[in-house]
Design a protein that fits this description.
GO molecular function: oxidoreductase activity, acting on the CH-OH group of donors, NAD or NADP as acceptor; quinone binding
GO biological process, one term: fatty acid biosynthetic process
Strand order of the largest sheet: 3-2-1-4-5-6-7
Protein name: Short-chain dehydrogenase
CATH topology: Rossmann fold
Distance between the termini: 36 Å
Family: Belongs to the short-chain dehydrogenases/reductases (SDR) family.
Strand content: 5-15%
Number of strands: 7
Number of helices: 7
CATH superfamily: NAD(P)-binding Rossmann-like Domain
Order of helices and strands: EHEHEHEHEHEHHE
Organism: Entotheonella factor
């Protein structure tokens, strides 16, 4: 049974692979045997990811890409085809709140800020899914697409543009799975909760993280690496009958009724 989790002979493209969740998923896929194309805007970051993969005995290349530009996404997939001859797995992870965190009132929210957030967090996923599925259909052997959303999409948030875009990604996933299923292409979405973004910078931040962790039923915040195994499972033959599904990985935060950032507890779950 465990051999179905191996990805030997598979090729994967991961966007936003220079840090955080994207880097964790890229490294996990490589550890499972996949050959990687690591994409992000910042070349130095994906060079580091590629370096860590190759030092561990894997194979990976770095392709700087702005995923808000559909032509660049098409070239990213073409680079994968030129290098490895095929694409088996697309992980559309790149995204971020960015402009959504402005202090505008809802009725004064500017068009360009809204469009910027949608471009990075929704349209980019469509570009990745479209480019990957095109290559998969042409090859005729199916494939796997994994989108990444956010727990904020499942609750209200005053920084509304970001959860709006991520909610669209969840809907995109369900529709794409329905359309691409007959082509043997599976499409699922990972929905992370609050995850620690690197070590705390000072004692106050460490204390804040401890306090936030106590709001989660498992008693702590997540770590980026903990999302890697889920990505491997969804990319592997172990999940070959799973498509169109949303996978929440948040330590039980949403089940416990926490707010979208884990900062509004209904209960302190510390024993």
């Amino acid at each position: 049974m465990l051999e179905t989790l191996r990805l030997d002979g598979k090729t994967a493209v991961v966007t936003g692979a220079g840090r955080g969740l994207g880097q964790a998923m890229a490294k996990a896929l490589a550890q499972a045997g996949a050959e990687l194309v690591c994409a992000a805007r910042t070349a130095e970051q994906i060079d580091q990811t590629v370096g860590e993969i190759t030092e561990a005995g894997g194979r990976a290349i770095a392709v700087p890409t702005d995923v808000t530009d559909s032509a660049q996404v098409d070239r990213l997939v073409d680079r994968c085809l030129d290098t490895y001859g095929k694409i088996d797995i697309m992980v559309a992870n790149a995204g971020g709140g960015g402009a959504s965190r402005g202090d505008w009132a809802f009725w004064e929210y500017p068009d360009d800020a809204f469009e910027s957030v949608l471009a990075l967090n929704l349209k980019s996923n469509f570009y990745c899914d479209r480019a990957a599925s095109r290559a998969m259909v042409e090859r005729g052997e199916g494939g796997v697409i994994i989108n990444v959303a956010s727990g904020t999409a499942l609750r209200g948030n005053r920084h509304f543009a970001y959860p709006t875009a991520k909610g669209g990604t969840i809907s995109l996933t369900k529709s794409a799975a329905t359309i691409l299923g007959p082509q043997n292409i599976r499409v699922n979405v990972i929905i992370p909760g609050t995850v620690q973004k690197g070590p705390p910078t000072d004692a106050q931040e460490a204390a804040d993280r401890t306090r936030q962790g106590r709001m989660v039923p498992v008693g702590r915040l997540g770590e980026w690496w903990e999302l890697g195994p889920l990505c491997v499972f969804l990319a592997s033959d172990a999940s070959q009958y799973i498509t169109g599904q949303s996978f929440i990985i948040d330590g039980g935060g949403l089940a416990a009724g926490l707010g979208p950032t884990g900062l509004t507890p209904h209960h302190d779950w510390t024993p």
